[in-house]
Amino acid sequence: MTNSPDRNKQGDQTQAMPKRAGADRTAILAAGLARGRTIKQAAREAGYSERQAHRKLTDPDFVASVNQLRGRMLERSYGRLTATTAEAVRTLHALLQDEHAGVRLAAAKSILDYTGKFKESVEMTQRLERIESILRAREQDDWQHSKPHS
Length: 150
What we know:
Structural class: mainly alpha
């Protein structure tokens, strides 16, 4: 790969940007934005001008790919957090036996707080799943009734 300086409209030299294939540059820009880079940072990493990057953000397919990448990153992070949950619960449980009352109280409050939030989350998920199931059944029923009879 060779580096050649790009020029802006006034002909001034800007920083040297490596030449990359368009699809690679687009993927690098999307990944940078999904990781939380600023538009300026992500554009520089991908070899785009900031203006070009802003233009890419007007493309619904590009924005969808950034959102999809961000979603996958969040899912992986959530998976890692979930893997450590059992250890965190064991730690809180052990702290209930600590010799200092303040530590025991803080652990007890944490357990009660997180238990309530967890219960609410599970109940909300179950309710949402029931609603989605009802909607799917209605859609299926509507589809069955809208088919032409032969």
